[in-house]
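Hey team,

Filing this mostly as a record. A colleague (T.K.) asked me to run one chain through the structure pipeline before their review meeting, and I want the input and output archived in the tracker in case anyone asks later how it was produced. No errors, nothing strange. Just documentation.

Input sequence:
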Amino acid sequence: MISKDTSIEELVEKIPAAVTYLSRAGLRCIRCGEPIWGTIEEAAREKGFGDDDIRKFVDDLNALQE
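Output structure:
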């Protein structure tokens, strides 16, 4: 299960479709080669997203696994 504390590296390894989702959500351009280190929460907060947004990202990403 994905949580806000899941590292971006682990997320992309578990759910490759997360790259597209994160790019569309505005969490950096992974495809452009800009590496993301840290957790989902850290990446989201760096882009100005709040708690509600982060919960939605986690819910959406877990839905991608199903």
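Quick notes for T.K.: The chain is about 55% helix and 0% strand. The two ends are 10 Å apart (CA to CA).
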